[in-house]
Specification:
- The protein is 27% helix and 26% strand.
- It is α+β, with helices and mostly antiparallel strands.
- It folds into 3 domains: 81 residues, Uridine Diphospho-n-acetylenolpyruvylglucosamine Reductase, domain 2; 132 residues, Uridine Diphospho-n-acetylenolpyruvylglucosamine Reductase, domain 3; 114 residues, UDP-N-acetylenolpyruvoylglucosamine reductase, C-terminal domain (Uridine Diphospho-n-acetylenolpyruvylglucosamine Reductase, domain 1, Alpha-Beta Complex), CATH 3.90.78.
- A hairpin with a 2-residue loop joins strand 6 and strand 7.
- The structure holds flavin-adenine dinucleotide (FAD).
- Flavin-adenine dinucleotide binds next to strand 3, helix 4, strand 9, strand 13 and strand 15.
Length: 338
């Protein structure tokens, strides 16, 4: 298999065997991939995808791994890690290969050119491909923060390798964007690059929004460097909020093995002590069961589970105490309510 893969991919990218995936995800969990291909250009990505399709081998395209949890038993097949990150600017159009990092690479470059439209997404771990898959979103600028802004608002067009192996340039309508969704959830198209149409604005305004948004996030989100996570775990329930339900059910601090519902933000689970994907699954199931029992609401996960999962190895729930002096995201929401 590896020889056939290598032959099809040629010099475009290296193929490795038995590569542990945890370091490639923000949750820091996940067993080995049978085969691992790192693609450093859009053409290498296209070549790798064509190869795995031709071989009809199971495959998964990995960006920053910020919206997925990979099972402890890993992935049987080929993981393609997309690090194609070339970016170029033409007037107010900025084109990025799909493995480019939205922040800092893309946003810092746009800001330095006084180009506005992407700065709202500062501090969110994402590649350009992942951002289109999920329609990256964040609140509009302070102080009003009156609506959610989506990356689709600045997307001009994208170059795809479609699920039928055609190279195709598509506009924003093609993606059928919604909240946390795009056509990429149900069509196996691959984004090779994307072009954003930005607005020339006063640079100081862009940097002000970046600073305010980074400060907003630092108060409400655990720091990925010390507390690995995958962002929000459960989908928003309109008008109620998944985090609020979890908080009201007294589930902050609930922990299975090395995974805990952080006291900082009820909708975020952090890996605080060599947690496993199985710990996470057990904790997610426990939170869903408790919330349903106490409120009647069913919480749906918004993250993707990838690969093979093993049964839980460590028990729970154990409840960890709230750190002294912490102001939680839920308390800040009440404080900031109009
Ligand atoms: C601390 C933290 C905070 C977060 N805050 C936010 C937030 O405020 N707003 C928000 O919207 N999200 C947020 N997220 C979620 C996450 O950052 C986004 O969903 C992000 O877009 C994921 O990008 P990624 O590159 O990591 O994708 P991955 O997790 O690697 O992949 C996600 C999916 O996209 C697919 N994919 C990746 N690249 C391509 C491509 N080129 N073509 C086709 N499909 C592709 C993958 O196959 C996979 O199915 C947060 C996550 C964390 C960890």
């Amino acid at each position: 298999m590896i020889q056939t893969l290598k032959k099809l991919i040629g010099t475009e990218a290296a193929v490795e065997e038995n590569v542990r995936l945890a370091p490639y995800t923000t949750m820091q969990v996940g067993g080995p991939a049978d085969f691992f291909i790192k693609t450093a250009s859009a053409s290498a990505l296209e070549c790798a995808v064509r190869a795995v399709r031709e071989l009809e081998v199971p495959h998964f395209l990995l960006g920053k791994g910020a919206n997925i949890v990979i099972g402890d038993a890993g992935f049987r097949g080929v993981v393609i890690h997309n690090v194609a990150d070339r970016i170029c600017i033409n007037g107010n159009l900025i084109t990025a290969e799909s493995g480019a990092t939205v922040y800092p690479a893309l946003i810092e470059l746009a800001a330095a050119q006084s180009l506005s439209g992407l700065e709202h997404y500062v501090g969110i771990p994402s590649t350009v491909g992942g951002a289109l898959w999920q329609n990256l979103h964040f609140l509009s600028p302070a102080p009003a923060r009156e609506r959610t802004m989506f990356i689709e608002e600045v997307l001009d067009y994208a170059d795809l390798l479609t699920e039928k192996n055609e190279s195709k340039r598509v506009g924003v309508d093609y993606f059928e964007f919604g909240y946390d969704k795009s056509i990429l959830h149900w069509r196996d198209d691959i984004v090779l690059s994307a072009t954003f149409r930005l607005l020339e604005t006063d640079k100081a305004d862009i940097y002000r929004i970046m600073k305010e948004n980074l400060a907003w996030r630092a108060l409400r989100h655990p720091d990925l460097k010390t507390e690995p996570s995958v962002g929000s775990i459960f989908k928003k329930i309109q008008g109620i909020g998944a985090g609020r339900l979890i908080d009201e059910c007294g589930l902050k601090g609930a922990s299975f093995g090395g995974m805990v519902v952080t006291h900082r933000h009820a909708n975020i689970i952090v890996n605080h002590a060599d947690g496993t994907a199985a710990d996470l699954q057990a904790l997610v199931a426990y939170v869903q069961k408790e919330v349903a029992r106490q409120t009647g609401y069913h919480l749906e996960t918004e993250i993707e589970f990838v690969g093979d999962f093993a049964p839980p190895t460590r028990g729970g729930p154990v409840f960890l105490p709230r750190p002294e002096g912490l102001i939680t995201a839920e308390e800040l929401a009440v404080r900031d309510a109009p």
